[in-house]
Amino acid sequence: PLILGLESSCDDTAAALVRGRRILSSVVLGQAELHADFGGVVPEIAARAHAEKIDHCVEAALEEARVTLAEVDAIAVTAGPGLIGGVLAGVMCAKGLAAATGKPLIGVNHLAGHALTPQLTDGVAFPYLLLLVSGGHCQFLLVEGADEFRRLGGTIDDAPGEAFDKTARLLGLPQPGGPAVERAAAEGDARRFALPRPLLDRPGCDMSFSGLKTALLRARDAIVAEKGGLTVTDRADLCAGFQQAVADILAEKTRRALAEAGVSRFAVAGGVAANGTVRAALEAVCAETDTGFLAPPLALCTDNAAMIAYAGGALFALGRRDGMDLAARPRWPLDSRAAAMLGSGK
Ligand code: ATP
Ligand code: FE
């Protein structure tokens, strides 16, 4: 079946056409310049931009795929979790298209889109362990089916991408912080500063990154108090120390999650997966435990609509159809037990 996917849950407006595992088109319109002056995504600005751009995005995706709306078999849309104004813009657009054409409507969990991406890109079979590690997320998901996920743990405070961005800000490096910190760290000595590895002494797969940032701030202030400022070397060493700490935390918790999941395939997704040190640490754990390692291409690891169309197609195959009462949900845990605890879930 040919699936049209829509995504608008954060700061990218996206539309894509996917048939099985074939991506016919994937259009992503970013909003980075709209939010640049504010040091973060501003929900009201994001919502307005999504509403303004989503129709154009759908048209561009149809055109690029050289198909018409009439040929589409179903319309899949991110129905949460995310910034509610943005999610609503996508859901309303999808409902309009479904009502106008009579095509089935399928609400997709944004996290399911990320979680099924290794299948879209590499045809990885169930079950597998996924580490989603981005600017807004950090969690281990045991993926057992297109609609069967178990959350094994995740961050209890910041997401690592957010920690990279804050670290860059603390050290006067540009945004997005991840690539800037990685570049600076290349010349640094990761052992000069003893930064903490929070929660590594505790059992389980939960992680914490906010203490790391505080320790980094303290180390920076100590240098500034002593020498009046940071040298290039100081900055490089701080970045290297921070990056190594993040890699160590993710690697050790991945080792535990793999043991708990008892699977032989591991995939990493999200913007932080672009980091060479993080990736090498995760690959080493997989090599050590005889686990297949997979990192999908970055363009499909960050927010896009192809993953939503693919996940929608998988749900379509399972018989899922949503009605015009499909709700936009700011919070929507993937794990059904977690959803029940929140009192919000199917
Ligand atoms: P989400 O997808 O969770 O809604 P997002 O859009 O912020 O959030 P992504 O686009 O997946 O997430 O990733 C962006 C994050 O990845 C940013 O925080 C950025 O600093 C980080 N990042 C990008 N490249 C690197 C890198 N080389 N090293 C570390 N972090 C990186
Ligand atoms: Fe995302």
Automatic annotation (TrEMBL):
It catalyses: L-threonylcarbamoyladenylate + adenosine(37) in tRNA = N(6)-L-threonylcarbamoyladenosine(37) in tRNA + AMP + H(+). It is an enzyme of class 2 (transferase). It holds the Pfam family TsaD. Its cofactor is Fe(2+). InterPro entries: ATPase_NBD, Gcp-like_dom, KAE1/TsaD, TsaD. Binds 1 Fe(2+) ion per subunit. Its EC number is 2.3.1.234. It is found in: Cytoplasm. Residues 23-310 form the Gcp-like domain. Fe cation binds at residues 110, 114, 303. Its main location: cytoplasm. GO terms for cellular component: cytoplasm. Keywords: Acyltransferase, Cytoplasm, Hydrolase, Iron, Metal-binding, Metalloprotease, Protease, Transferase, tRNA processing. Substrate binds at residues 132-136, 165, 178, 182, 275. GO terms for biological process: proteolysis; tRNA threonylcarbamoyladenosine modification. GO terms for molecular function: iron ion binding; metallopeptidase activity; tRNA N(6)-L-threonylcarbamoyladenine synthase activity. Belongs to the KAE1 / TsaD family. NCBIfam families: gcp_kae1, T6A_TsaD_YgjD. Required for the formation of a threonylcarbamoyl group on adenosine at position 37 (t(6)A37) in tRNAs that read codons beginning with adenine. Is involved in the transfer of the threonylcarbamoyl moiety of threonylcarbamoyl-AMP (TC-AMP) to the N6 group of A37, together with TsaE and TsaB. TsaD likely plays a direct catalytic role in this reaction. This is tRNA N6-adenosine threonylcarbamoyltransferase. It comes from Oceanicola granulosus (strain ATCC BAA-861 / DSM 15982 / KCTC 12143 / HTCC2516).
